[in-house]
Specification:
The complex is a heterodimer of chains A (304) and B (255). Chain A has 304 residues and is mainly alpha-helical. Chain A contains eleven helices and five strands; from the N terminus they run E-E-H-H-H-H-H-H-E-E-H-H-H-H-H-E. Chain A has one domain. Chain A is 72% helix and 6% strand. Chain B folds into two domains: 192 residues, Immunoglobulin-like (Sandwich), CATH 2.60.40; 31 residues. Chain B starts with a helix and ends with a helix. The chains are: A mainly alpha (304), B alpha+beta (255). At the A-B interface, strand 1, helix 3, helix 5, helix 9 and helix 10 of A face strand 5, strand 6, helix 4, helix 5 and helix 6 of B.
Chain lengths: 304, 255
């Protein structure tokens, strides 16, 4: 069944879009990430203009993170204080990202920058995650136990001026650290249409040293607000949010997210993380190949 | 006496014009309005018509017909990727002030066989004859490379097309041709031009037929809203995603 997307300006197969949303939703439900990192490249691959893909993917991530936030709220897994600082940084980030977006578009380098950012982000975090989960899987196999990691913040964070108490996170640190972290992920959300959970979760754990039981909930809380902000900024500046595309992506992904969440309960978390890191590394590898290989299209057209 | 000279003059004038008999074209198109709505997957236009020869005398020599459908023109920038330090990035670019968003030409025989190069250039017949008016200084070799790149890209997307032998002429009088329009066409007024060609020259050209392509109904509503009421539109998109996310959580939570 084909349907015409009014903003993207072309017709697509609805089933493909719903399935794509569903598959990404499954992953996001299983791993607690937004899944935007897969939606945007897949949509571009399907022929949707890159700007429309990034803008509509951020709308989809909003929907996928809502039910997650509610679930974490119920069991007190959200540090609102920390979340508010992150959201403030994130909103500034989306505004700055919008500026960057239009500059890069004028310069003609938006595609390359998006691709390089993806490679760096996915490659770095996928590698880190793969290493860590492989170690714990092997430890389980051989019956040895890994020494527990000490929870503490990075020396760089400790050097920032001014300190606030974040009770639920168990931290006494400068609010600048989460503000900067939020800002960086806000830029990524705007440019790539990703929620930024990939960056947030490891950074919260290893840079800020937040207590593990509020990390996922607080990250989802931040993703929710920052993707809302990015949808709004895209609507106002690039005008590239395709509500029809977003609707069908959402139908797939919110259902997929619920199924994925059930599925995740039956799997060992270590294996789950190893699987996720394999997927992330595969996407990164595909992107690296895409950068170095001669592209299918040498010429691109942009309206003036 | 005066009357006789007048009649003679009239007869002479008619004889003179009969030496250059100009046929007329009566073109039409299967659809004057193409509406883009949710089930739009592209369209096929039938361009057809009749050739009216003076006094109904069909000449013995072969005539050819070409039909051209042109979309509105837009200023564009074409970028070219080059390998820089191991990765492919956009390097050079050329601005074109008037590139047609859509251009399709069909002819009864290959264009190269029915028109000479000069005529083809004047009437913009063929994908290699498009006048894109590049701005800024650029050498001809580069211009040709970029033009070819643009034409090739649009050709594969179905926005530019050239097909020879696809105009059927019946009894030297009736002609018809089908042109395909992909779903990604932009809105606007499209001009259908019909050209009657003989001995390598265009004898009649008629561009009186226009086709209007526009979004209607819901698609039009969404587009206008996204453009003019962007704040409301963004808020609506956010609400939609919140509602669907919450609904799914609620529905699955109850099971």
């Amino acid at each position: 069944m084909d349907i015409y997307l009014p903003i993207a300006g072309l017709s697509v197969n609805v089933l493909v879009i719903i399935l794509l949303g569903g598959a990404v939703g499954m992953l996001s439900g299983m791993f607690g990430v937004g899944g935007g990192f897969l939606t945007t490249p897949l949509l571009i691959f399907y022929g949707i203009p890159p700007t429309v893909a990034a803008a509509s993917a951020s709308t989809q991530v909003t929907g996928a993170s809502v039910s997650g936030v509610f679930a974490h709220l119920r069991r007190g897994g959200v540090d609102f204080h920390m979340g508010a600082v992150l959201v403030a940084g994130g909103m500034l980030g989306t505004l700055f990202g919008a500026l960057l977006f239009s500059l890069l578009e004028q310069w003609g380098q938006i595609d390359t920058v998006i691709n390089i950012l993806y490679v760096l982000m996915l490659g770095g975090i996928g590698g880190m995650m793969a290493k860590e989960s492989w170690q714990s899987v092997r430890a389980r196999r051989t019956g040895t136990t890994l020494p527990p990691r000490k929870r503490r913040h990075h020396p760089l964070v400790a050097n920032l001026p001014g300190r606030w108490r974040f009770y639920r996170s168990g931290l006494y640190i400068s609010p600048l650290a989460p503000l900067i972290l939020g800002f960086v992920t806000g830029i990524l959300t705007m440019l790539l249409g990703v929620g930024g959970g990939f960056i947030m979760i490891p950074a919260m754990l290893y840079l800020l040293g937040m207590s593990a039981n509020v990390v996922v909930g607080t990250s989802l809380f931040q993703i929710l607000f920052v993707t809302i902000s990015s949808t709004m900024v895209h609507s106002l500046t690039t005008k590239a949010v395709d509500i029809v595309l977003a609707l069908f992506l959402l139908i797939g992904s919110v259902t997929g997210a619920q199924i994925g969440a059930r599925f995740a309960q039956r799997l060992q978390p270590d294996y789950l993380r190893l699987l996720l890191s394999a997927i992330v590394l595969l996407v990164a590898l595909r992107m690296i190949v895409g950068l170095g290989w001669q592209p299918d299209e040498i010429y691109t057209v942009q309206l003036l | 006496m005066r009357a006789i000279t007048l009649i003679a003059a009239l007869l002479f004038a008619q004889a003179a014009s009969a030496q250059e008999p100009v046929p007329q074209l009566v073109p039409d198109v299967s659809q004057r309005d193409i509406n883009i709505q949710s089930r739009f997957t592209g369209a096929e236009l039938l361009l057809f018509g009749a050739i009216l020869f003076p006094r109904g005398v069909v000449p013995d020599e072969q005539v050819d017909v070409a039909v051209v459908l042109r979309g509105p023109t837009r200023p564009i920038i074409v970028r070219e990727k080059q390998k820089v330090a191991g990765i492919w990035v956009n390097a050079q670019s050329v601005d074109f002030r008037s590139a047609p968003t859509y251009y399709a030409i069909a002819s009864s025989r290959p264009l190269g066989k029915i028109v000479d190069a000069k005529t083809a250039a004047i009437y913009e017949l063929g994908l290699d004859q498009l006048q894109l008016s590049p701005s800024g200084e650029i050498n001809t070799g580069e211009l040709r490379r970029f033009t070819r790149g643009l034409v090739d890209l649009n050709n594969r997307d179905g926005l530019y097309g050239e097909s020879s032998g696809s105009v059927d002429i019946t009894g030297q009088v009736l002609y018809r041709a089908r042109l395909k329009i992909p779903s990604s066409v932009p809105e606007g007024n499209y001009v259908a031009e019909t050209l009657l060609i003989r001995n390598g020259r265009v004898i009649v050209a008629d561009d009186s037929v226009t086709v209007s392509i526009s979004k209607t109904g819901f698609e039009r509503f969404i587009t206008i809203m996204a453009q003019r009421y962007s704040l409301l539109y963004g808020a609506l998109a956010v609400m939609l995603s919140l509602l669907l996310g919450w609904l799914a959580g609620w529905a699955f939570g109850r099971q």
